[in-house]
Design a protein that fits this description.
mainly alpha
Length: 234
């Protein structure tokens, strides 16, 4: 199963960033805090730099993406890249922009069970599975783009995920501390943990998917629904 299977292909318009827990909005990601919208020429330059970075990843992997290499590939000065993205992490984060917007579009307005129209427990299960497979498909990029610890949980895309999970939990468990529970659930979907479990421990994605389903069932008190995954003999 791939993340693309549960994603819609079309993106809705993007309203201004907001974060009410009762009515989450699609958040803008990838832009600096001081540039909520770009002039047409700046937007074209930004797209040109991102296209150059994407080519470098396709040719050399994430390790091949440096500020100097992107500047050379885009035929601009290195200072232009730094002014637009701040640092390498900002550049890599911007490369995840479209995928982050697409995921948000799907869980805010896409078809159920990921989008509206399904019971909240089903939506929560579908959300975690979508995030798991998205992370697995973009793992190197997601690991390289992770902000430093002091900024990791305040990034707009992370806030959007937390807002959505909190909203679903409040529908399921209105008396619980849903903001803290959302942090616990999202920790299971952390790219660094997925990297450790799949690449270092050799766990198949099917086991992680089953673990998420089981975790949601136990946290929400809706009964265990774990899928048995046979492990290879030692």
């Amino acid at each position: 199963m791939l993340y693309a299977v549960v994603m819609s292909s079309a993106l809705p318009p993007f309203p201004k960033p907001q974060e009410p827990f009762d009515a989450p909005q699609l958040l803008e990601v990838g832009l600096g805090p001081d540039e909520p919208c770009l002039r047409a020429d700046a937007a074209r330059n930004r797209a040109r730099l991102l296209e150059a970075a994407a080519r470098l990843i396709a040719e050399h992997g994430v390790a091949g993406v440096t500020m100097e290499a992107v500047a050379a590939a885009a035929e601009v000065g290195k200072g232009t890249v730094f002014r637009r993205f701040g640092d390498r992490t900002g550049l890599l984060t911007a490369l995840l922009d479209h995928s982050s917007r697409q995921l948000q579009a799907d869980f805010l307005g896409g078809p159920p069970p990921l989008g509206p129209g399904a019971p909240p427990v089903e939506r929560l299960r579908a959300f975690g599975i979508a995030v798991l497979y998205r992370a697995a498909e973009q793992l190197d990029l997601q690991l390289a783009a992770q902000p430093e610890p002091t900024r990791r949980f305040s990034h707009p895309s992370v806030q959007a995920l937390r807002t959505h999970v909190t909203m679903l939990l409040r529908q399921i468990l209105p008396d619980a501390d849903c903001e803290l529970l959302s942090q616990t659930l999202l920790a299971y979907l952390d790219p660094a943990l997925i990297n450790h479990l799949t690449r270092q421990c050799g766990m198949p994605m099917e086991r992680l998917e089953a673990g998420w389903t089981d975790l949601v069932a136990r946290v929400t008190g809706t009964g265990t629904a774990r899928v048995s995954v046979t492990e290879p003999p030692a």
